[in-house]
Amino acid sequence: MSTLIKKRLSLLPGDTGKFAGILSGVILFLAVLPILTMIVMSFSGSSNLDFPPSSYSLQWYKAAWHTFASPDASDVLSLGKAMTTSLMVSCMAMIFATLVAVPAAYALTRLEFRGKAVALQLMSLPLVFPMVVLGLALLLVFDSLPFQMTISRLVIAHVILALPFVVKNCTAAMLSIGTEVEEAAQMLGASPLRAIVDVVVPLMKSGILAGMLLAFIVSFNEFTVTYFLYTIDVMTVPIWMFSRTVSSLDPTVFSFAVLIVLIDFVLIWALEKLVGEGGVSF
User: Fold this and answer.
1) Could you give the number of structural domains in the chain?
2) Which domain holds residue 262?
3) What phi, psi does 227 have (nearest 5°)?
4) DSSP class of residue 198?
5) Strands, E, within the chain: which ranges?
6) 43 within a domain of the structure (yes/no)
7) Domain for residue 263, yes or no?
């Protein structure tokens, strides 16, 4: 992303390019400032939350490891169980969103049907819909069902939130694939379905992979909607971290937050390495 910004800024004339560069640097600094503050606080050596810290140590990382390895009996749920739930929900949301997005992207780019424009708008609706309202609406729907749903309702909610990212990336990949590749496969004896599975889907690999990783990141970090749907026995890592700050702010939360940032950083780095900037659509 930074390379792309530099290329764009290099095209701007003289003073305008310098001003744009300074402005971009200020915006990027403000964007990462909360993360940098969190990282600094995670190395605080004091028992309070003064910023900047008066001393530095690894005490909160040690406390975080102790919390993970030997959870307190007073905790309603251990971090290990919350992490397991987050990984399960994120993986299932990623898989189900991809299974829905691939045929949807194909239909939206190849087929002409009544209501196509409406379908495109509905696919993007979760991106602009207020998360609090969406979480409350899903809670009312799930509670009205005649059967109980635990982890499955988190998966459904996360699929709804992740689907636009997967559809957008798969659609972007589909737009670069001409109809002639399917026609050539069918002329060689492949059925229409096999032409899609054996030819089109492999060519969509970059968009599918980008969408899958983005779906995992969105699901793993989701808090607002999850807050309305979690139960005392089924909560994700963001909800678990929030529970540690309700009565008083536990400084170990900063250590856990650094871990989450590192996981996201690795996933985004892998996304750029495997797919490249041209294959990602946010």
Assistant:
1) 1
2) 76-279
3) -60, -35
4) I
5) none
6) no
7) yes
